[in-house]
Specification:
Blueprint lengths: L1 H17 L7 H9 L6 H34 L11 H16 L4 H24 L7 H24 L2 H11 L9 H19 L1 H8 L2 H6 L4 H23 L5 H13 L3 H26 L7 H18 L7
Protein name: Iron ABC transporter permease
InterPro entries: ABC_transptr_permease_BtuC
Family: Belongs to the binding-protein-dependent transport system permease family. FecCD subfamily.
Length: 324
């Protein structure tokens, strides 16, 4: 299944390079790689789409993987970076960076996004822990929804008082993988690589947590440490992804369900398959958004909801879906 997911991603990646307001043929796409001609307009189009496709792959991978880790560590099938407030925290921090510090580059956004994502994650867990039963899947979902609503309200409040901040923020907030250079990719790549490696390393610990804390301890695991490491990977992945592409939702919610339906509940397979499927979903959504209403395009953040919602409904209705 992992090989099939990689093949799907490769096909969608090629489609991302070939399709758009100005589409090119497959032969031209191949020629642009083998015999690049700077004077050829079609070759220039293909080269210009490379960073965009790379960002789509990296951001989709990060969000799909982060969603699988969050669902595993909270044992909550509704957990994802958007629902649990991580994306909203990162977005608020970016607005503060724009309004208060005049930050205007991804390399500047990323540190604020990390701080906002981490603060939101800690706040949600702290609020959920105040419940009599502690931080259960239900209390985490409720605390996340309430925290997200509060953070979005604060974000909107800051935008209302600053027209310049609003103008700079509104395009970023829709969620887009469109960039003009490789600078944005290089700014976040180290954080995404580290976050991915840390997340994949938590697979065995997540399998233990799925059996319950007592069972995990009997297997020699330390649930508190496992959750902290998993949370670190989520902050790295979501902070970097949000900084470069804006708050894109639905990827981290839908993709882990699809992965579990394909490979079962073993996180040693769920995590890598979720990463690849997340990249495929975002690249595919961005490509569809480019050809849906030419010559304009629909932002990837909007397309993931349009593409992901029917898939999620189908997964929910399947009686053979694998539980956490």
């Amino acid at each position: 299944m992992l090989a099939a997911a990689v093949l799907l991603l490769a096909v969608l990646g090629l489609a991302s390079l070939a399709l758009g307001a100005r589409s090119v043929g497959w032969s031209t796409l191949l020629d642009a790689w083998l015999h690049a001609d700077a004077a050829d307009g079609d070759h220039a189009v293909v080269r210009a789409r490379l960073p965009r496709t790379a960002v789509g792959v990296l951001v989709g991978l990060a969000l799909g993987l982060a969603g699988a880790v969050m669902q595993g560590v909270t044992r909550n099938p509704l957990a994802d970076p958007g629902i649990l407030g991580v994306n909203a925290g990162a977005a608020l921090a970016v607005v503060v960076a724009i309004a208060g510090f005049g930050v205007g580059s991804v390399s500047g956004y990323v540190w604020f996004a990390f701080a906002g994502a981490a603060a939101a994650a800690v706040l949600v867990y702290a609020v959920a822990s105040l419940a009599r039963a502690g931080a259960t899947p239900l209390t985490l979902a409720l605390a996340g929804a309430a925290t997200s609503a509060g953070l979005v309200s604060l974000t909107n409040g800051l935008l209302v008082v600053s027209q310049d901040t609003f103008d700079r923020y509104r395009f970023w907030a829709l969620g887009s993988v469109a960039v003009r250079s490789w600078d944005a990719v290089l700014d976040v790549l180290p954080f995404l690589v580290v976050g991915t490696l840390v997340a994949l390393a938590t697979a065995r610990a997540l399998n233990g947590l799925a059996l319950g804390e007592d069972s995990a301890r009997s297997l020699g695991q330390r649930p508190g440490v496992a959750r902290a490491v998993a949370a670190l990977s989520v902050v790295l992945l979501c902070g970097a992804a949000t900084a470069v592409a804006g708050p894109i939702g639905f990827v981290g919610l839908v993709v882990p369900h699809a992965a579990r339906s394909l490979v079962g509940g073993d996180h040693r397979w769920v995590l890598p398959v979720s990463a690849v499927l997340g990249a495929a979903l975002l690249v595919g959504a961005d490509t569809v958004g480019r050809v849906l209403l030419p010559p304009t395009e629909v932002q990837a953040g909007l397309m993931t909801a349009l593409v992901g919602a029917p898939v999620f409904v189908w997964l929910v209705r399947r009686r053979t879906a694998v539980g956490l």
